[in-house]
Structure formats: structure tokens, C-alpha cells
Amino acid sequence: MEIPPTIRDPLLEWVDCLLRSADPEEVLREAAAALGSPGHAVALGLWLPDSEGTCLRLVIGTGALAAAAGILERPLSGEPSCGAVWSYHSGRPSIETFDAPAMPAVRLNLPLRAREDGEPIGVLTAEGSPALRTAEAQQRLLLLARWLAGLLSVGASGSAGPLMARLNRLALMVNEEMALEPLLHHIVRELVELLRGDRGAIALMAEGGDHLVVVAEHNPAGTPSGLGVRIPIAGNPSMEWILRERRPLAIPDVRDAILGPVGPALEALGIRSLLIIPLVVGERVIGTIGVDSVGRPRVFTEAEQHLAQVVAAQVAGAVERARLLAEAQRRAAHLEVLHTVLREATAAPDLNALMERALTQLRAALKAPMGAIWLPGHAVVHGLSMETRRQITEAVRTAGLVFQGPIAVNDWHALPMDHPMQPLQPVIAGVGIRASVTVPIGRAEAPLGGLSLAVPEPRVWGPEEIALMEAVGRELGAVMERLQLLERLRAQTERLHILYQTARALAHGEEVFELLEQALGEIRAHLEADAVSVYGRDAAGSGLRLMVTQGFSPIPRVELGEAARTITGRVGATGEALWVEDCTAYPYPPETRAIIEREGFRTHAALPLRHQGEILGVLHVLWRRPRALDPEIRDLLQSLADLLATGIHRAQLLERARQEAAERAALNRALGEALRLREEMIQNVSHELRTPLTVAMGYLELLAEGVLGPLNAAQREAVEVSRGRLQELHRYVELLLTMQMARAAGEGRRQPLDLADLVREAARRLQARLDPARHSLQVEVPKEPVWMVGDPEELACAIGEVLDNAVKFSPAGGRIGIALAVGEGEILLRVWDEGIGIPPEHLPRVGEPFYQVEGGTTRRFSGMGIGLAAVRAILEAHGGAFHIRPRSPRGTEVLLRLPLHRDPEPQTSPPDPDPRG
């Protein structure tokens, strides 16, 4: 069919616009869309013979033929089974009519031949509305068929060669799960053979975008390999043209000026002509394919360029998919590392194990054979020898480097002289490290340690890699801070426990030796000390005698003036504490050195026992293993020494008081002093406990609320148990202080108050806590006010303590009662229970500080014996009295007597809070 001149130019313009994509499938889609009309779609299909020539197969289809592409085939032997087979054999177009759902449709088959008289290559089929019968539609299809025939005949050597088989093979390669590098080598070989070139190469754009790097080649011509060669962009007109136009550039002669400085290099390789095809993704050129002619000039035809574009489009897609996949895999690996650290950091029972796993995963994700994580007291190092670690550590220490932000070195051999890491350059480069990156662990302003990765070759560290390491560093820092906080809390709790137990032993002891035995036993047990001893002044005051020792046998007596012969005499004379973390290196006096070496002690603390400026003795605490005497342990030992000094002084006063029993006045003075010291000791102990107790409870509240980071189940349980124990200890301390304040307080906080209202409030609070299945509460309070003058906080504490005591000693099912009444000029408050009662012989002492009916560690009910003592102190401070008596048939009754306020009250009910009425 000839193309009439009147429509030739518009048709050529349409085909030229259509063929810009150089992708046969896309060309057919665009052509089908252009040939169709509203309501009348057109489908196009390309039929090609299989490699054996036995059947005709539909290889590309659009519209209604798309689903049959790759599946539909017709035999070429025998009678023609369809119009496409007839047109393939006859070389002439055929038209078929068939019934479509809406209207009769037309199928037009156009044969594809390499030349007018050449062998058949394939068939172009168009089916759709009867509009395909028009001359314009058929002429457009004819031009399209000729372009396809020219494209398919490239490389056919005068016959319909295996072009489509090569294209299909290339398409299959691109879609196979093959590594990118071997895929590119296969593709460049196929394209060189397809275009009958001598050699070829594929170059990809470098990350910086200023040059390309040759990553694959096919070089049967035997010219030198170009793998790894960098192709500059700046000053290279050919590459600038490719980036701007994004279409093939055929260069018949490498001496062409468009090649710029690259031309002489190509000419030196024997290359005469070349075709450069860009790899385009969207609007970006991500690389090029080059096909070269060696030794002879060559002109690459437009059809060959179109064919190369088809291959380049597939290669560009494959490269982009490979890059996206690699990026996704890299990001997934990064997220997996961070996820693992975050997941395991929540529990983090073992910081070393967490550091080991984090470093292993980081090295794998970032492909670094060497790495290290270091924190105070912890270090994990991979890929470096012990000697290398020592050299680097010494160099960092000598240079005084502090890593407060990420420091990346891309090449230690090319490190600028003004770089902050320059002092380490000789050592780092000398151990085989070429590139490294270090980030701080924890907060940048106060780093706890560092995290480093290193490689033996130059490397540019990307922002994502550094960001991943920083995230891991922050999480490791949070874990370290959380574990340090828990350790401090445990130490603080232990310190409070030791102080409490020592204070308890001192408070209960009467004989000085018994007192010291119990106190030193607590110190030795809770500090895990191997030996302890206490020296006290002898009667003459000229020397120190051994009072109590546990774990070793020291010198029985030393003179205070013999500081050069014994450490005990030196500390007792000067009053200065001695802290020795390594006994083997300390210059002990000879007698003390003999004991230290004989017993094998490694750590030693000796403290003066000072009370009100007077040195009463010396405390020794010793360990047979090395131990750090940090500020916390020193503060604890100093507090224990103060308690012991107070206890020794108290015991000495009591001993002297017993010796002077014949002289009543002297005995009373001694007892008064002893009691004063006892109260002073209790107050000192209470205040000593109160501050660290408040701090510890505050930290536990922060932990329980999750402010300091998430806790696992075991950590939450430990925090809750610690909170309960500290709250119990807090109650005891507050009772001690309340008792002291009640005894010392004057009239400053006294005010008129309604005692009936206080009793009702106390009963309401108790009722809210009671388990109805275990206890019932009976309340008898008059409706009218019961006025008195007093401290409402202290009285509320006393009422609450008596009620709590009744609940504590009441069995399940027991009743508890409280009754308020006004008697002859006084107020009577009775609280009773149906509990176990109190043996009559103990009644006189109930209410004394620290006295308990059941003492010792085997008692059934916990407590310190200060609750009722505080109640008695409050009642007596208000001019009242406290009585306890048995109740029939069982139980106990507590009677509180308080003075009634006799001044008339102007109000019989609380005032209205609103002054307007």
C-alpha cells in the first residue's frame, strides 16, 4: 500500500512523535490510544514466530489483546488458522470481520518483512471498530508496521534474524533475580553482539554526580579493560549533551570535538566510532551504555539507536530497581539493628551482652570489620588486637580527646593537619585503619563513652550510617544511665538499711560490749567486710584498748602517742580518717604492717569515733579483696562511726550511772544525760535517715511512673518492693520526729478545734481501708462539737496510730470500736478491739519508745515500738494521759484523756465558707 502525498507529512509527524519512547510495547499502547475514539477502543498486537519456526505467537498486546500476550499462538504449518498466519505466509494484508459485544468489529493484519522481497518477520494485528477500514487508519498502521519491521530487522544480516529472541532474552535477564553486576555484564555483551559492535561498557553515575564509573564491559576486541575508569562530566561536551538531551549520541569519529578530553584516550585504545545511550529514569540520567567500533569507522543507524534505547530503558529500570532494593535492604538492616537495641534495652539485665549484640549487628549492617564500644567499667572490641587497643587508648588519653559529637574520617592517610583527630593519625594509620567514624554514647553535652567503627580502606560515611550509630549510642547511654540509677538506688537503700539496723542495735543495747557486737555484726554483714574492730579510750585516757573485734586478732592495747608504731594510735591521736584502697602500697608502721600482711588485707578504712569534739575511739573496717572507697562508701562509714560514737558515749554514761547508783543525785544527772543523749541520738538518726529516704523515694516514684525510661517486669517488681519497704521506714522516721516534736513543742501550734470532727475523719479514713470481710468498725461520736485547744496534726496522728494498732492486732472477723465522750472536765476517747490482748506484766511498759511485747527476729508482728510511744508523747504534751487495759472477754482497750476547753464558743457549727450567707 502506497502512502498518498497529501497525508504523508502528518503521518510521519505522528509516527515520529510516537517513536520517541523507543519501547515497542509503549509504542503500541500510544498508537492504540491514538487510533481509537470515544466508545470504540482499538487493540494492537505483535505476532512473531518462535525460535523453531513452528508457530506464530502473540508477544505484545494492548487493550483486549493484552491478556493473551505470551499465551496465544497459532501453528504455521497446514491450512492458515487465522488471518495473521495467512498474512505472514502471503506477505499481504488481510481484513477480517467478527462479532463484538456492541457491534461488528474489524481485525486488520499487516505483514512485517525485512525488505519488500525479504523473508517474513512477524505480523501487526489491529482490531476494533469499523473505523480501521478508513485510509488514514490503515496508512498509520502501515507506517507503524514498517517501523517495527525496520527495528526487528536490525542485525538480521539480510534476513529476519533472531532479534526478537535476543530482546526477549534481555527482557528475561532484566526480570530475573540476578545480582546487578553479572546482569550488566550479560546485557552489554548481548547489546554489542546485537549491534555488531567490537566492544561495549556500562557506566553508572557516582553518588556525587560529578562523574561516571565503568561497572561492566564486553571486550572481545582485546583492548585494555576499562572497569573502574572514571568518566568526568565537567569539561566533557559529550556527557553534558547526554545529560541535557537524554537520548542516544552516535559519534562516527572519536576525533570529533564533542568528546573533548576523552577523545584522545579512546583513540589510543583503537576505537574509531561509538554509540552512547543514556540510562534514563524519569528526568534523571543514572548512567550510560557505550557500544564501540574498533579499528574501523561505523555509522549507527537510527533504527540501531532506537533498538539500543529499548535495551537502555530495560537496563535503567533494572539498575533503579537494584538500587532501590539495595537501599531498602540497607534501611531494613539499619532498622533491625535499632529495633534490636531498643527491644533488648528495655530489659537490659546484662549491659555487656547488649553491647556485644549491638556492635555485632552494627558491623554487619554497615559492613565494618572493626569496631568498639566503651563505657565506664565496660568495653567491647571487635577486630583489633590487644596491643592495638592499648596503643589507641594511650593515644586518645595523651591527646585528651573528648567525643561530644560524631567524628567521621574518610581516609586517615589524607587527614588534614588542622583536623581534631590529627594527634591520632600516626597510630590509627599504623594499625591498618583507613576510615573510621566515632559517635558519643549518651547526651552529647555529657557523653558517657563512645562507639566506633573502622574499615581498612577509604570510605565515605553517609548521613544515614552516622545517624544510625548516633541512635544506638543514645539508647546505650539511656540504658547505662538507667542501670547507674538503679545501682545508686540499691546502694542508697542498702545505706539506709545499714544505718537503720545499726541505729536499732545501738538503741536496744545497754551494755557497751553487747551494743558494739551487734552494731559491728550489722556493719560487717552489709558491707561484706572481712574484719572489723573498735578501740575505746581506757580509764586513764592515755591509750586505746581493744573493745570488740570480729574476723581477726589486732593489738590488744596501743598508746595514743605511738603514732609511728600503729595506725590505731595515729588515728586516735590526730582524729583524721585513713582510707587505703591498696594496702600493699601504703607505708604502714611496722606493727600494723605485720598484722596487714599476716591477715592478707587489701583494703582498709580507719575512722575516729568522735562525739561532741571528743575522740572516744577508732573504728577499723578491712577487706581481703581490693575495693574502691568511693565518696558514697566513705560517707556511709562516717555516718556509722558517728552512730557508734554516740552509742559508745551513751553506753559509757549508762555504765558510769550504774556505778554511781549509791549517789541518787549523781545517778539522776547521769540518767538524765543518758536520756538526753538517747533522744539526741534518735533525733540524729531520724534526720540522718529522713534526707536519703526522701531522695530514694523520689527516685523510686520517677522509676515507677516511667519518667526515667521503661522498666521490665522484674525491674517494676523490684521498684514496688523497694517502695513498700521505704514507705514503712518513712512511717517510722515520721513517728520518731513526731514524738520528738511533741515533746519539744510549746503552745505555738495550738488552736481551738473540734475533736469530734477529728475522730469522725480518722474513722472515715480507716473505714475506707478496711476489708469488710475481715473487720467491722463501730463509731460512737456525739453530734455536737467537742471543743479543745491542741495541735490538730499531732492529735490526728495519735488517733490514727491507735486505730491502726487495733486493726493490726485484731483477728479476721473482729470488731473495732471508737467512742468519744465528755466527762468531768475532760474528754475521754476509747478505742477497743477483740485482738490477742497484752499480758498484764507488759502493760506498764507499753508506750515506752522501742518497747515491744514480742521482741527479737521471730516476733509475729512487725514494728519498732514507737507508734504508741508517739501517742503517749502527744497526749502528755497536750496535758492528757494514756492508758491501756485488758478488755473482757478478749482484746484491749486504749483510753485517751484530754483536757476540755472551758471557754464558751460563739459558734455551734463551722462557719459558712461564703461570706454572703
Automatic annotation (TrEMBL):
EC top class, as a word: transferase
Q: Write the record's keywords in alphabetical order, separated by commas.
A: Ion channel, Ion transport, Kinase, Phosphoprotein, Transferase, Transport, Two-component regulatory system
Q: Where is the signal peptide?
A: none
**Which Gene3D superfamilies does the record match to this protein?**
1.10.287.130, 3.30.450.40, Histidine kinase-like ATPase, C-terminal domain
CDD domains associated with the record:
HATPase, HisKA
Catalytic function, reaction form: ATP + protein L-histidine = ADP + protein N-phospho-L-histidine
Q: Which GO terms describe its cellular component?
A: plasma membrane
Q: Is Ion transport tagged as a keyword?
A: yes
Q: Does the keyword Transferase apply?
A: yes
* Entry EC number(s): 2.7.13.3
GO terms under biological process = monoatomic ion transmembrane transport
One GO MF term on file is: phosphorelay sensor kinase activity
Start and end of every Histidine kinase domain?
684-902
InterPro entries linked: GAF, GAF-like_dom_sf, HATPase_C_sf, HATPase_dom, His_kinase_dom, HisK_dim/P_dom, HisK_dim/P_sf, Histidine_kinase_KdpD
- Specify the domain of life of the species encoding this protein: Bacteria
Spell out the protein name for this chain. Answer: histidine kinase
| Species classification | Bacteria, Bacillati, Chloroflexota, Thermoflexia, Thermoflexales
